[in-house]
């Protein structure tokens, strides 16, 4: 006779290494899926195995460290902007080139419809395999990418269309060719111009939000983050290399930087955290898009109710009040 007090969940596990933890979790879940695919005479055994899967996933994903969330934000199967565009928008028509130098395939920009309403959508695309990643420059835009984005956003302002930006980039491209063509100027110009565009701007960080490369299309009226995305002035590896001269201390840096969605919400740097499907957005692209869709609809409806001057003033105040400032006491 089976012990009736036997726990249905797997024993508590310890995940010290984030990468191996994710791999171990995926292997365990796949093994359980194979077992549940076999003919099992006892229905209770099937129920127990399903409970094991659910408990194991909840245990791991409910207690992720900042470094583990960083690994999830970088997961190669995570939905990229083109995936969200396909699932959330209709009639997407991509626009190419900045009319100054050329086209940057790391930056996606174009016209579309959102629930039937004409709009503009932007985002950084990393690529799934090696060929795509090289073509997309791993989602790291060059000056022509940011100038293309601004060109398209100005078209949105001209025709009164809301702007949606989907951010997933490790940062702006740091190569010498980008610097020669004015990388810093292109990013700075976007920051200034986005602050005064007279149309609603809704920003969603879907994966990595890296430094100025992300901020260049992240000045908006509403800033959302997916549950397992990150947003930071520098990558954990870069921070560790500067602070401790050791990129191997990236896990320590990830905790110190406060790059996760809950941290940024508590600091007032974002407006809302969007939940992900159980196990992360990389498990179910359709479900991830379905969770994002009503948030975008609700926020766009709220912004539509504001006069242009009121919307621009709130946008300015939003960014003006970010950060913590302390007055120096007189000696």
Describe this structure in words.
It is a single chain. By secondary structure, this protein is an alpha/beta fold. It folds into two domains: 19-63; 71-320, 2-enoyl-CoA Hydratase, Chain A, domain 1 (Alpha-Beta Complex). It is 47% helix and 15% strand. Strands 1, 2, 3, 4, 5, 6, 7 and 8 form an eight-stranded mixed β-sheet that branches. α4 crosses α13, α6 runs parallel beside α8 (183-195) and α10 (236-243) crosses α11 (250-257). The protein is globular. Residues 1-19 have low confidence and may be disordered.
Q: Can you give me a brief rundown of this structure?
A:
This protein is 47% helix and 15% strand.
In terms of DSSP E residues, the strand content is 5-15%
The CATH homology group name of the largest domain: 2-enoyl-CoA Hydratase, Chain A, domain 1
Radius of gyration (CA) equals: 22 Å
Pairing-aware structural class of the strands and helices? Answer: alpha/beta
- Please name the CATH architecture of the largest domain: Alpha-Beta Complex
Can you tell me the number of structural domains?
2
Low-confidence stretches: 1-19
Strands, total number: 8
CATH class of the largest domain: Alpha Beta
The number of distinct helices, counting runs of at least 4 residues, comes to: 14
Cα(first) to Cα(last) distance is 79 Å
- For the residues shown, what is the average pLDDT? 85
Q: Main beta sheet, described?
A: 8 strands, mixed
Gross geometry: globular
């Amino acid at each position: 006779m089976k012990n009736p007090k036997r726990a249905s969940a797997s024993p508590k596990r310890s995940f010290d290494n984030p990468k191996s933890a994710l791999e171990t979790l995926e292997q365990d879940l796949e093994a359980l899926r194979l077992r549940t695919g076999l003919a099992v005479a006892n229905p209770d055994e099937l129920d127990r195995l399903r409970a094991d899967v659910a408990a194991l996933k909840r245990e791991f994903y409910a207690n992720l460290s900042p470094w583990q969330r960083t690994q999830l934000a970088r997961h190669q199967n995570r939905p990229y902007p083109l995936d969200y565009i396909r699932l959330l928008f209709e009639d997407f028509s991509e626009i190419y080139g900045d009319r100054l130098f050329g086209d940057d395939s790391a930056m996606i920009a174009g016209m579309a419809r959102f629930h039937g309403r004409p709009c503009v959508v932007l985002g950084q695309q990393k690529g799934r395999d090696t060929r795509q990643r090289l073509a997309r420059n791993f989602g790291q835009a060059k000056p022509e990418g940011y100038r293309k984005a601004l060109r398209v956003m100005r078209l949105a302002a001209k025709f009164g269309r809301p702007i949606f930006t989907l951010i997933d980039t490790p940062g702006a491209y740091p190569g010498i060719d980008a610097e020669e063509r004015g990388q810093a100027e292109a990013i700075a110009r976007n920051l200034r111009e986005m602050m005064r565009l007279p149309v609603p701007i809704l920003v969603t960080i879907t994966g990595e939000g890296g430094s100025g490369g992300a901020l260049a299309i992240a000045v908006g009226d509403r800033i959302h983050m997916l549950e397992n995305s990150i947003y930071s002035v520098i990558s954990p590896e870069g921070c560790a290399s500067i602070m401790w001269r050791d990129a191997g201390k990236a896990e320590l840096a990830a905790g110190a930087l406060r790059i996760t969605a809950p941290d940024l919400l508590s600091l007032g740097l974002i407006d809302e955290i969007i939940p992900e499907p159980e196990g992360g957005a990389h498990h179910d692209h359709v479900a991830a898009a379905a969770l994002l869709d009503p948030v975008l609809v609700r926020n766009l409806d709220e912004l539509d109710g504001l006069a242009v001057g009121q919307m621009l003033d709130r946008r300015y105040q939003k960014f003006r009040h970010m950060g913590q400032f302390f007055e120096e006491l007189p000696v």
